[in-house]
From TrEMBL:
Matching Gene3D superfamilies: FAD/NAD(P)-binding domain
Organism: Aurantiacibacter xanthus
GO molecular function, one term: oxidoreductase activity, acting on paired donors, with incorporation or reduction of molecular oxygen
Entry protein name: Ubiquinone biosynthesis protein UbiH
Annotated pathway: Cofactor biosynthesis; ubiquinone biosynthesis
GO biological process: ubiquinone biosynthetic process
Length: 404
């Protein structure tokens, strides 16, 4: 007899696996299918990326039982410093005492380890990886996926969580607004002489933003940060090919010595930067979550948080519908999910795209205008509070799972 479950989640990354765990906590079963090998994804050195976890996203992780495992691994963001090339007029976003912090920084590897360990212990999650999906079927009575070995997995609702190049989204024929920024993000871990004191730096240059994100000290007490440096596509190969000493010299020039001497913490990597957004995020017995629905610029560190808000909203809609006796794939449930997420996802995507373009305008006059604007925000507490609430993910109509 086929093992039919409530959800068929295609993609077992950070968003897909969080969805499976959040659903399981509400009694909703799932198949999770991923082509990647979990052992490779969690290998030391596989992925040097780090993610900013907003206050709302941290609430989600806590509410699904990951708080204890993740708490010692993160670094609190106590300040976000935003500056135009380190010139006068910077903004410092500092949380009110009652807020605690502006969020937490985590290595993606640590997030994966915690999620994967929890998934292995959850009986409501059937995890299939590494496997290939040879075909997908959606119909009025259910959905299915046939794996490369011929295994057929059945469910009521299919969820595409495969990231920007989602084959499920492409096969379903969703219209996609997209463009290329012709930039690459260079990712590197750094050890540095001076402590970061929980400050996340966003330094804007005409050629692209340069971010320093605080991480916990390592076992030897060395201070660490993650670097995300956006560079022109044509300059990326040369920078990636530089010897380590020369590369660190280039990085030092962007850092203006704020943390003293630096060393490399692991290898460099890079990925292309682009924008994509779907007008619809649902189809017949299908929902999109995370980057499959909206891939944004990493300028404000909101990509993963946006996907986790998708998770919270979808689970809440499913729980309420199933309580009324509806199946997870019912059209009215999916319509509510789409309506709930439409404005938030578009607003964040539009804001990130606008910031990228605004700070990419070269010249002294645009720089002066930007710095005057930032100085005005710095002197206007209500406006600063608005931006901080957005960064913490605590604005708008939040799903219950994202509340404390």
């Amino acid at each position: 007899m086929a093992d039919k479950r409530d959800l068929l989640i295609l993609g077992g990354g950070l968003v897909g696996m969080t969805l499976a765990l959040a659903a399981a906590k509400k009694g909703i079963s799932s198949h999770v299918v991923d082509r990647a090998d979990p052992a490779e994804l969690t290998a030391e050195g596989f992925d040097g990326r780090a993610s900013a976890i907003s206050t709302a996203s941290w609430n989600l992780f806590t509410n699904i039982g990951l708080g204890e495992a993740l708490a010692p691994l993160g670094c609190a963001i106590t300040n976000i410093a935003v500056t135009d090339g380190m010139k006068p007029g910077r903004i410092d976003f500092e949380p009110a005492p009652e807020d605690g912090s502006l969020g937490l920084m985590y290595r993606n590897r640590d997030l994966r380890l915690a999620l994967f360990e929890a998934a292995r212990e959850e009986s409501l999650i059937a995890w299939h990886a590494p496997v290939e999906v040879s075909s997908r079927e959606r119909g009025p009575h259910g959905v299915s996926a046939t794996l490369g070995d011929g295994t057929v997995l059945e469910a009521s609702l299919m969820v595409a969580a495969e990231g920007r190049r989602s084959p499920t989204r492409e096969e379903a024929g969703f219209n996609l607004a997209h463009w290329n920024y012709h930039h690459r993000a260079i990712i590197a871990g750094l050890f540095h002489e001076k402590p970061h004191e929980g400050v996340a730096w966003e330094i804007f240059y005409p050629a692209g933003p340069f971010a320093l994100l605080p991480l916990p000290d390592d076992e030897q007490g060395r201070h660490r940060s993650a670097m995300v440096w956006s560079v022109n596509e044509k300059d990326a190969p040369g920078l990636l090919a530089l010897p380590e000493k020369a590369f660190l010299g280039e990085v030092m020039g962007k850092m203006h010595g704020i943390y003293g001497a630096i060393e490399a913490d692991g290898p460099r990597s890079s990925y292309p930067l682009g924008f994509q957004h779907t007008a619809r995020i649902i189809g017949e017995r299908l929902a999109l979550v995370g980057d499959a629905a909206h891939g944004i610029h990493p300028i404000a560190g909101q990509g993963l948080n946006l996907g986790l808000r998708d998770v919270g909203a979808l689970v809440e809609v499913l729980v309420e519908g199933m309580r009324l006796g509806l199946e997870p794939g019912e059209a009215q449930m999916l319509a509510r999910y789409e309506k709930w997420r439409a404005l938030d996802s578009f607003s964040v995507a539009f804001a990130c795209d606008s910031l990228t373009r605004l700070f990419g305008i070269p010249g002294k006059l645009p720089s002066l205008a930007r710095r005057i604007g930032m100085a005005a925000v710095q002197r206007t507490p209500p406006l600063k509070r608005f931006f901080m609430d957005e960064a913490r993910g605590m604005s708008g109509d939040l799903p219950e799972l994202l509340k404390a």
